[in-house]
Specification:
about 500 residues; alpha/beta; five-stranded parallel beta sheet; five-stranded mixed beta sheet; 22 helices; about 55% helix
Length: about 500
């Protein structure tokens, strides 16, 4: 067998040494690709089959530990070897815990040891593969299908179809927190009308439900009733996605594709808990996965009303076209670039915005993040209006560094003014002293974190620049007129109202 190898290493010298110095071809290996960090490796794996991953531990963007965790979850068939320096052993242990097979010390690396290590891993993997019975292989394929990165083979579809007598079926995916997963799976296997269930070990249970024959209306009512019973289980999950029904001609692959498509699009369909394919069939038929919204390219400073109207137009178009996440992110980025340009925000950091946008999950979270960033640009524009070049520069500096331990000397030095002159000028042009302005920036950021994360108070305090949580709480109350706990309670009530 010819094994395909991907090398992930940010040091060009090490990459060259591993690729050219090891006699891969002699032992039946082929280096099919290289990556300089974990994110690039994951992109490569989406499009290229790989059998063995050789990855460094310490890399930018995504290190070897996180890459190991992601690869084991998404591509469990890939064998992983980590490359480590002497001082990386804590990370090596973590990688082995996540599923790496072995490690190689970079300081002692030689071609013979690399080959022997990889050969040993391949032999072990082949032996394990032979032990896996047909049921486990099929269920593993279903788990991969649930994660959206594999097609279901005919063998697996035929295996599913042969598990039970012919009747009417529908596929369902139950989605929710991982801690309740096994309880839900156990309950599903005890239910008489649940014919088969398997979980992906993360946050989803896949099952097939038995349906009685009847009219279209009867079948739809029965599906909805099945979903409601699932959600009423004591350990029930958060959402249920159901495919159309299938009869004697068992269409496992098509049914599974329908529930996966619904799950992928759940964020577009509000806060529903039950998703029936029939309810969204027409919307799915009109979907344009590659749609990108391009805002109007106009000149001059926009008004808030104009910007809000354009944002509403974008939201309407996106909810009609249902793009995939990549093109959704591009739409939000284009919108932000357009208005940053019109607001003359020359210091706005496009890459930082995009990296943060990608980390946001549901559509509503992305839109809320976009609104907050736009509001920051507006506040900056208003804050800079009529200000001297030195104070404008100081305000930009503070926006970038307010979470650090700043002193008057730091900020005055950044704009090349004496401390006394700068202090008087800042107060005259902003109406605030410097420390009050910094505290206002920090508390504004803290409020955003409280609204969008579950971080503890001391974690938020550290995130915005306070080393003492009690002092942070004092400043928070002084500026907002409410305590941290009262503010969080208010946000929780607002969130519940919006559900």
């Amino acid at each position: 067998m010819n094994y395909r190898i991907l090398i992930v290493e940010d040091d060009a010298n090490y990459r060259f040494a591993i690729r050219e110095g090891v006699p891969w071809e002699e032992y039946g290996f082929t280096v099919v690709g290289e990556a300089i960090h974990g994110k690039q490796a994951l992109e490569f794996l989406k499009k290229n089959p790989v059998d063995i991953l050789l990855t460094d531990i310490s890399m930018p963007q995504m290190n070897g530990v996180e890459l190991t965790r992601r690869v084991r979850a998404e591509y469990p068939e890939i064998q992983i070897v980590v490359l480590s320096a002497y001082d990386d052993f804590a990370f090596v242990r973590e990688s082995l815990k996540y599923g790496a097979r072995d490690y190689i010390l970079k300081q002692e690396m030689n071609p013979a040891d690399v080959i022997q290590t990889v050969l040993k891993i391949c032999e072990t993997a082949e032996a394990e593969k032979e032990k896996v019975d047909g049921k486990e292989r099929m269920e593993q394929e279903l788990r991969l299908f649930l994660r959206g990165n594999r097609a279901l083979s005919k063998e697996a579809a035929d295996w599913l179809g042969g598990l039970w007598p012919r009747c009417m079926y529908c596929a369902a995916m139950v989605w929710g927190p991982g801690e309740g997963l096994q309880a839900v799976l156990k309950r599903a296997r005890q239910e008489e009308n649940i014919l088969y269930a398997v979980s992906d070990h993360e946050c989803r249970v896949l099952l097939f439900g038995k349906l009685e024959c009847g009219s279209r209306r009867k079948l739809t009512e029965e599906q909805r009733g099945l979903a409601e019973r699932i959600l009423a289980w004591p350990e029930g999950m958060e959402k249920v996605f159901l495919s159309r029904e299938s009869g004697a001609d068992f269409q496992a692959k098509e049914l599974l594709e329908e529930v996966v498509r619904l799950a992928d699009l759940q964020d577009w369909f509000g806060r529903n808990r039950i998703f029936l394919y029939y309810d969204y069939e027409s919307r799915l038929a009109e979907r344009n996965c590659a749609y990108v919204y391009i805002p109007k390219e106009e000149t001059g400073l926009p008004t808030r009303e104009e910007m809000e109207a354009e944002l509403a137009r974008m939201r309407e178009h996106l909810r009609r076209m249902l793009p995939d996440e990549k093109h959704l992110n591009e739409s939000f980025l284009r919108f932000m670039v357009c208005y940053a340009r019109r607001l003359k925000a020359d210091d706005w950091k496009q890459l930082t915005f995009y990296e943060e946008l990608v980390r946001r999950g549901p559509v509503d979270e992305k839109e809320a993040f976009l609104r907050r960033e736009l509001e920051k640009l507006w506040r900056q524009k208003e804050a800079y209006a009529g200000k001297s070049p030195e104070i404008q520069k100081a305000l930009r500096y503070l926006q970038e560094h307010f979470t650090e331990d700043l002193t008057l000397g730091d900020v005055a030095g950044a704009v090349e003014l004496s401390e006394n002159y700068f202090s008087n000028l800042f107060k005259a042009e902003t109406g605030e002293n410097l420390m009050h302005y910094i505290n206002s920036l920090r508390i504004a950021r803290a409020k955003e974190l409280m609204a969008s994360t579950n971080l503890k108070v001391y974690e938020i305090a550290e995130e915005v620049g306070y080393r003492n949580a009690a002092y942070f709480s004092t400043i928070f109350r002084k500026i907002t007129k409410v305590s941290v706990s009262e503010y969080r309670k208010e946000q929780s009530v607002k969130s519940e109202r919006n559900r």
